[in-house]
Amino acid sequence: MGKRLLILTAAMGAGHDAVAGELARRVARRGVEVCVLDVLELVPLRLGHGLRRMYEAMLRGAPWLYEGVYQAFFVSPRPPPASPLTALIARGLERRLPGPPPDAVVSTFHVAAQVAGLMRLRGRLDAPSLVLVTDFAAHRMWLHPGNDRYLCPDEASARSVAERTGRPAERVAPVVRPGFLRAHDGGRLRAEAGARPGERVVLVSAGAWGVGRVTETARGLAASGRYLPVVLCGRNGRLRARIREGGIGYALGWRDDMPGLMAGAYALVDNAAGQTCREAFACGLPVVSYRPIPGHGRDGAEAMARAGLSAFARSPAGLVETLDLLGSEQVRKAWAQRVGTLFDAVRAEHVIRAALG
Predict the structure, then answer these.
(1) pLDDT, tens digit, 9 for 90 and up, residues 313-325
(2) Element (H, E) at 68
(3) Are 241 and 249 in contact (CB under 8 A)?
């Protein structure tokens, strides 16, 4: 019988699912049977859907409330205690596990890491549990001493996680689709957005849900007269309409051709420090964090900037000045060298294959 891998994720936005899906594709190519489960689907009475909607609503309309939740529950040097939600999901997972037990479990979402760690610690999971941390700033909800190994985005986060959990942690290369590593056909974006010759196109990311103060960001870039903002509105139709009606740039809905779009851009202005940034790194597209969403978005942006992987603009004038600096070939080359080290790390699927035995 072949090896079996269970990947636990959650559809909070699109980034965690994107990592889980690409990881599943890579591992399955080597003859491993892979099952991907959304842990929020395991919460009884569809409460997981309610949690997802509540989180999205906070980011859209009450970011200050999410900041309060983040400070109260996510920020601490110690792993969090077991919660009723974790226990509920663990029981649901035990009922839903298909067929024979997995030979290894990988979590790509922090609640999943809590569930797998709890089950492992209580002897309800025999397979080794690995956590693929998708945040450069690993908050305490990622951490559980029951997990066997942590796969982190860089050396700084790996050291922090190892110190806080007492478990092995190592950096692995970003898990992105192959298309981002060989992105081309950048002229398509310029033609679609109506960019004039020599005009610099800047992608403004609002995530899958289209959240954050991106309308103000686009307005500031357009007012500079030097940049054409192309706003990635995700699945937020209202945001797309506001951008188009306001005449402050070009608005795009949900797109599956991101490698080609990134190939035609001058830079990415991002507000979440998530998977879109990793994809930009793979494409060789410089990233500027600006007006990040609260909590993990802000902390992730700070961590990326400290590592020299992105810039963090603090004001409208600072954003334009930062983008101006990226016009220097020397600056872009130095940035590309720093980002290139991320992809020199061991690939996550190689570590997982070793854990499968």
Answers:
(1) 999 999 999 999 9
(2) helix 63-73
(3) no
